[in-house]
Amino acid sequence: MENQNTSQEGVTKNRSLAIINWVVGALLALTGFVSLFSDFIPGLFLLLAALVILKPTRQFVMSKIRVPVSRPIKIGIMILFLVIAGATMDTKPRQDVSSNNSAGQAQKSENTQTAVTPIEQVAAKPKTLEERITNTIDTSLGSQTNTKKLRVVEVILDPYKPSMLTEYGYKGGESVTGVLIKINSDENLTTNLQKGTMHNEAAKIAQAIFPLNSTIGDIIIWSQLPVKDQYGNVKDGTAIVYSIARPLFTKINWSNFNHRDLPTLLKSESRIDDRNNYYEAINF
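RESULT FIELD:
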């Protein structure tokens, strides 16, 4: 009876070892197969270790080499394969990926800086006086007229010549500039309302432009409206010209000034300083 129990225990033990061998062998085989695509050498030795553990593959190999191998040697070979697999596993591939990612991020950052730098430089570039004048008029009157035309048509700077500096009481070599401004005016229903609109625009422009730069000596405003020529063609043309010099600008109390008085004032002041003037280029 005792021998029978011992025999049953041996059979159970062998079955348990066989199951363990299959589970471990299958896991090693699966791990080794997957590792072949990312880390070939460790994957290969894991497969070899699985080959030793799994009884069918082990018996197939042993039948081919026809050399008797004891159980301890089989276990030693399996352990050797596992040690080699573990020793050849390293983090080099992951480090390479990390390095590549870092390099890619650095390159991306460099490219971003390269792309952003010109934008920053453009943003930091000071605006020209012409651009500042245009922006100021757009802010004061609106960038478009009530008929959706572009407000500012043209801005031209006209530096004073030496003879002009002398004539208007400036020092020789002083920097003084005349500003020529062409705008499209808002349109109105009647002649009286139209002139009032244009006088108001000219007064607002003078109040906005002279404070921009102390070198501005005078401004000339060409105010445009749709004009019909003798052939019946309609196009934008100069309707009124306003000329205002800085000395007159500084004398006017703009908070109490009525823009409708601007033509009369400019005509009277032209006797003192011919840079001041008012001229209607069309018959209203």
